[in-house]
Protein 1
Amino acid sequence: MIGIKFLEKLYEEIGGIAKIDYARHLRAGKPEAVLAEFKDPEDVVKIVKGYIRHSDSVLITRCMEEHVRALREAFENHKLIVNEKGRTVIVRKNGTKVEKIGKVAILTAGTADIPVAEEASLTAEYLGLEVLKFYDVGVAGIHRLIEPLKKICEVDVDALIVVAGMEGALPSVIAGLVDIPVIAVPTSVGYGAYFGGLTPLFAMLQSCSSGVAVVNIDNGFGAAVFASLIAKRKE
């Protein structure tokens, strides 16, 4: 049993608004990220400043323009990697090197799914994964999968992140063709009865192909974290 006094020392309180879990990567194999959505820009900056005292880099997800602006101003002496489409930002100390731990391929059914895929992409890069991207290869034109799957098999990726809205069929199709773990990400993309992403979520949970794990709607971040854990265990 881990001592309570030991655990007490593994976070830092920031101005009564947050407790930085800076040792999460030691305990759980994955670092803490900062969710910017629903937070004031100045609070996000305070939290990131607290975190960067204990780490070489920090990932911020679901950023709006005002969050990005505030981060650029506050961390002008750091390296900022901004993915506008994925609404994600990495704040990194200059000279920081990222150890590569594996490879992940990210596929989307359609172009409208790309923002969620880009959140997964920058998260995966932050966690040390080499990322291959294959966008707009959904089942409406299933022949588009041939070249991506050939490439994926050639380079020996550790996991696949498959992002789809509408009826959410793509992860099940891919899982029936490859011997690689498939992480399915339903998106809130579709017409009428897609119910904000519930339709693809339920379809993915009912996948006829085995070997499919499903994360929550639009959760590209969670999919990338899962892929990094697979890669670390494989390594």
Note: The domain at 102-234 is CATH 3.40.50.1970 (Rossmann fold).
Protein 2
Amino acid sequence: MSSGTSRERIDSTSAAYAEKLLDIILARENSLPRTYGFEYEFLPDRILNQDDISRLFALLSGEGYRLDKGIHSKGDRRIAFEPGGQIEYLSPPLKASDNIKFNETLDWIQDMNELIEVETGIRYIGTDYISGRYAAPLLLTSERYSRMHERFMKANTRGPDMMKGTAAVHLHAALTSIEDLEEMYPLFCEIASSEEFRMSGSRREIWNRTDGCRCGLPEVDLSSGALSIMEGIVKFVLEAVELQSGKRFRNIEDKNFADFLDHLTTIFTDVRVNIKFATLELRTPDSRPLEEFPDLWRKFVEKCESLKSQV
């Protein structure tokens, strides 16, 4: 196949997949007033082992949480874990003005961290990075994580540190229309490098040496509308190495759109569109002590809400 023909095929695939992704976002039917949310990770104060993970799972089960597809749920309370034993608290959808529910969510997180320390002796810390965990055991050993770890051992030098030694706060906003993507994607890209929301130097250094084909930011034309933005994202994802085959996704002949959606979840760009929930995610903020989070949350929501006044 000539390079020209190959490029035409990639461009055609990018356009088709971009349209499908936009259709999925619209079908989610997120409505105004827009909701926001966060995923808050904490690092364990020591290297954990499988016995520790078993005790954590047993504690959550005893507290009434039910495990399904990697998520421990109890009503709208949801908890997940990362391969190094990091705990991740997933907030419910929050309206911009719902300070009561926001504070209740922070109280739940604080209470759970305290309960875990009392019952298991594991203390969870809000911090960006703890060194010395490159060779720590991989505590989540699903096929996905095992392949990811194998890839990161080869792709560069810091991937295992990213998987097992870092923690972040992901902030997200619901996409209620195509216009939301046009307005909010440039905003998220801008604030990802701002002093308030960017990664710490140590965490950024790890990300830069994890896997360049799935980290960073795609080259996207921000001036030509939602479809152009989505096409730029799709092209970036097509260039990324697929974990099972070890090939760039665009070079795998028998893959389809469903395979692409699965591959999309292995991309860790600073700003990411979450197709499942039709949200836009800012993934750069570092984990931090819980008492420091309300100020960051307020600034994030204010920046998103300010876009309305510019319409």
Note: The two ends are 47 Å apart (CA to CA).
Protein 3
Amino acid sequence: MPLHSIGDLAQQFVLRGQAVSLTREMNRLTQEVSTGQAADLARHLSGHFAPLADIDRALVLTEAQSGAARLAATDAALMQTALERVQTEAQRLAETALSVPAGGGSTLPSLLALEARGALSSMIGALNVDAAGRALFSGDRSDAAPLASAETLLTGLRAALAGAPDRAAIETALDAFFDAPGGGFEAAVYRGGTGSAAGVSLGAGETVALRIRADDVALRSQIKSTAMAALVDDESLSLSSADRRAMSGALGERLLAGQDGVIGLRARLGSAEARIAEAASRIAAEKTGLAIARNDLVSVDIFASATALEGVQFQLEALYTITARTARLNLAAFLS
């Protein structure tokens, strides 16, 4: 309808409506030019949201998998550090223990016991490591630290060995305490779960499990030798000076022999770390591919949008000019 065929008030409303429409269109095109993405997705996709929804769902899933992979990598790194600590302490203690039989007197067994008590505390502290409140070596009971304190262990072991009349009996009691089902170690020292920790899903049907518990045979063996070394100078044990020195050397050999088991655990953990790293790379690639696909769906031709924006700006400027001229019209100007 031509503008001169309607009244002045109606004409103002028409001009105002056109200004609002053009301003809205200009804002939309400005956003598209600045972001490169469609401001009105329904219009851009013609209402077909299914492909975009599938991509967004996949992005949420890969983000969750990426978070799980980061968490698993952190747990594995902490566990690797803990096992390295156990290995290092056992190696150092073994070297000290093997030097005892060559010495004389009771000084060396006493020094070994002192070093062993520190090593035992260090080993237990390392295996009690947690991440965000989850004990990593507790199996399926991650809410509890897997091992009691070194002092608790030594108190229970001292009581178990006190009645042994000689070295052979002490070693038998030591084995029973640590290795027998329901023995002192299982009853009073190990407080973790009896099942394995749950696996972590890394997508593509892949799962990784960090199933190493503090009561593993390899770790228990090193803790056993270290705890016995800590009591090698204990006066409550029926051992002569010669027996103490001989036992020290034997414990050193056991500590060295037990290193293979700890190395095996570290190798298993290293394999899991490699799988986690590979999965993290795969997930990152999937996220990149999905992001590219999403961008292809929602992106616009910036050149076309810029051209359209220029056209809308021209229309808006023309409308403002018409509005200004119309506002200056009056009867005196018309009659003159």
Note: The chain is about 70% helix and 0% strand.
